[in-house]
Structures are given as structure tokens and as C-alpha cells.
Amino acid sequence: MAWTDEFDRHFCVVGKKYDVKKLILKAVAITESSLDPLAYRYEPAFWDRYLKDKPEWKDKDPKLVSASHGLMQIMWPTATMLGFSGTTAEELQDPLTNIMLGAKLIRRLLDKAIAERYSDKFYWVSPLQVALSQYNGGTKGNPASDGSIRNQKYFRRVMITWGNLRQTEAECDE
């Protein structure tokens, strides 16, 4: 299919830009949305917990603001924090934009996990494990003070998908 070739090109270009492996990005996108650029998941509790009292979001539709969009399932507030200047949540359905934001977030989370030296504190936790767990489950209290990660199932699903991809696909050409 042509769209999968296009997505693979995006994963390569963006992966190189943010120094995140193409197959990790693709594994996240498969886990999050089955590579569906139109994927949408409304998370009403997110609105109630984090956004309803924020003035910058009060005039926006909660069903768009507190929803995950596209291949990498990016939320509009997260996209804005990452520099997205779009005026509608629907713009997050653009595959290149969405993959770029997902990779940028993973890179930031990786850099943060490395800087905070989680692997030194908790030898059983890798920076990638922390970054992907935070990508899916947020940064507050993740990992916990004892080094436990909230959403191990998510991390395992991404790693299984990554392992399967490695058997059938190559990383990007240098």
C-alpha cells in the first residue's frame, strides 16, 4: 500500500531528526492506533482533571481537546506544548505532523529520563522504558519513588511489536 510507504518515509525522516529509531516510532504508532491517521480516542477524565479550569482551553470543545489524535495518538495540549501552532485538533491527523510530534515527545522524555538518571537509581529501568511509559501514562509519579512503572503492559506491547517489526523490516538507510 502506498500509505504505508509514505508513513515509513515519515518515520525515517523524523526518526533521524529526533534520533529515535524508525521501528520504535512505528511500534508506538501501531500500538497506539494500528497506524490509523484518523484514530481518535476521547478521554473525558483528562478534561475534568487537567483542562476544564485552564483559560486557554475553556472555549474549545472538550471532545477535541481531551482526545488523542492520529497515528501516534497525540493530544492537542501536548502538541501545543511541543510547538504545534495549528488552530484545530483535526490538523493532528496529518501523518507527518503527528509522527513529528510523537517523535519529539519521545525524544524529550528520553532526554529527561537520561538526565534524571533513573537507570542509576533503579537498575532495572531503562531510559526507553521510562520514556515510553511516560508517553502513554504521563510523567507525574511515573516512575514512582520505588522505581515502579505504572503501565508495564503498554511498554511490553510496544517492545513485542518492535521485535516483530525487526524480523521483517530494516531501519532506515544511512
The CATH class, by name, is Mainly Alpha
Please give the count of helices: 9
Globally, the shape reads globular
Q: How many structural domains in the coordinates? A: 1
End-to-end separation in angstroms reads 24 Å
CATH topology, what is it called? Answer: Lysozyme
Order of helices and strands: HHEHHEEHHHHH
What portion of the residues fall into strands of 2 or more residues?
A: under 5%
List low-pLDDT spans. none
Rg computed from alpha carbons, rounded to a whole number of angstroms: 16 Å
The mean pLDDT is 90
Spatial strand order of the main sheet: 1-2-3
Biggest β-sheet strands, sense, barrel: 3 strands, antiparallel
Give short descriptive properties of this protein.
single chain; 174 residues; mainly alpha; Lysozyme; 9 helices; 3 strands; 57% helix; 5% strand
3D structure, described in words:
- The chain has 174 residues and is mostly helical.
- The protein has nine helices and three strands; from the N terminus they run ααβααββααααα.
- The protein has helices spanning 2-18, 22-33, 44-51, 62-65, 76-81, 95-115, 118-121, 127-137, 152-168, and strands at 40-42, 67-69, 74-75.
- A hairpin with a 4-residue loop joins strand 2 and strand 3 (74-75).
- The two termini are 24 Å apart.
Produce a short descriptive summary.
The protein is mainly alpha-helical. It has 9 helices and 3 strands; from the N terminus they run ααβααββααααα. The chain has one domain (2-168): Lysozyme.
